[in-house]
Amino acid sequence: MKKRGTVGFYIFLVVFVFLVMFPFIWVFLTSIKPVNEIFSSFKWFTSNPTLSSYEAALTNRPLLRYMLNSYVVSMLTTVLSLTFAAFTAYAVTRLPIKGKGLILGLVLAASMFPQIAIISPMFNLVTNLGLRNSYLGLIIPYITISLPLAIWILSTFFKKIPYELEESAKLDGASPFQTFRKIILPLATPGIFTTGILVFIAAWNEYLFALTINSDDQWRTVPVGISMYQSEFSIPWGDISAATVIVTIPIVVLVLIFQRRIVSGLTSGSVKE
Predict the structure, then answer these.
(1) Residue 5 pLDDT more than 70?
(2) Chain centroid, CA 229 distance in Å
(3) Of residues 74, 84, 101, 71, the one with CA closest to residue 192
(4) Which of 190, 240, 268 has its CA nearest to residue 33?
(5) Quick one: average pLDDT of 49-64?
C-alpha cells in the first residue's frame, strides 16, 4: 500500500508540474515553429524547427531596450521599496508606538486598492511633475503598489526575532538605529531577500502603469513592448512567443539560482516561536 501511495504521489506530481508548465512549453514550441506551421496545424512538435522568430523578435522591435527598461525600473523599485519597508516595519513592530495594529491595518487596506482606482491621480501626478517617459515616472507608482505588501511581509519576519536580542543590545548602549542595522537586519535577511524577489517580479510584470505613463517606445517596459508586436491587420504569434521566451528566461534563472533563499525566507516567516 505504501508503494502504491508513493507511485500515485509521483504521478500526481508529474501531472501537476505538466499543467503548471504547459503554457510555457506551448509558447516555447510555438516559438521554434515556422510561421506557416503556427496557423496551419495544431501539432505539438515541428519537423523543421527554426530560430527565425527569435531573430524577428529582436530586430522588429527593440526588445533588448525593453528588457533594460524593465530591469532598471524593477531593480530601483525593489531597492527603494525594501529600504522604506524595512524602516517602517521595524518601527511598527519593535518600537513603542501606539496604534500599531491600526497602522498595519491601513497598510494592508492600501494594498487592496486595484490599480485602475489610482491610475488617474497617479497619471496626473507624474504628468505635473514632468516625469512621463522616464524611469522615475514608473518607479513612483510602482513603489506605491509594492510598498504596502513589502511592509506587511517584513513586519511578519521582524515579529519573529526574539526581543531579548534587542534588549541586550540596548543594555550595551546601542541606539535604535544601531540595533536595527546590526541585529534586526542580519537576522531578517531571508525575509528581506524573499520580499525583494516578490517585489522585483511584480514590477517586472506590471502592465497598466507602464502602458499609461510611458508612451514613448524607447521607455516602454517588457510587458507593454511585447503587446506592441501586433500590427493592425495581423498578430505575429511567432515573434510574440519568441519574445516571451526571451524575457521569461532571466526571471526563471533568477528564481532557480535563489530558490533556497526564497524557500528559507518563506518558511522562516511562518515558524511559530
Answers:
(1) no
(2) 23
(3) 84
(4) 240
(5) 87
Percent of the chain past pLDDT 90, that is, above it, reads 21
**Residue 46: which of 55, 54, 36 has the closest Cα?**
36
Check pLDDT > 90 for residue 108. no
Task: Tell me how far apart the alpha carbons of residues 191 and 185 are, in angstroms, rounded to a whole number.
Answer: 10
**Alpha-carbon distances of 200 from 7, 60, 95, rounded to whole Å:** 38, 27, 28
Best CA proximity match to 166, nearest among 182, 142, 150: 182
Cα torsion 144, 117, 103, 135 to 10°: value is 0
Predicted local confidence at residue 2, as pLDDT: 56
Compute the distance between CA of residue 189 and CA of residue 195 in angstroms, rounded to an integer.
Answer: 10
The set of residues, in sequence order, having a beta carbon less than 8 Å from that of 65 and lying 6+ positions away, is 218, 225
Local structure of residue 188 (DSSP, 8 states): T
**How far is residue 14's CA from residue 2's CA, in Å, rounded to a whole number?**
18
pLDDT of 273: 42
**Spatial CB neighbours of 10, under 8 Å, sequence gap ≥ 6:** none
Neighbouring C-beta atoms of residue 86, cutoff 10 Å: 22
| CB neighbour burial string for 227-259, b if at least 16 within 10 angstroms, e if fewer | eebeeeeeebbbbbbbbbbbbeeebeeeeeebe
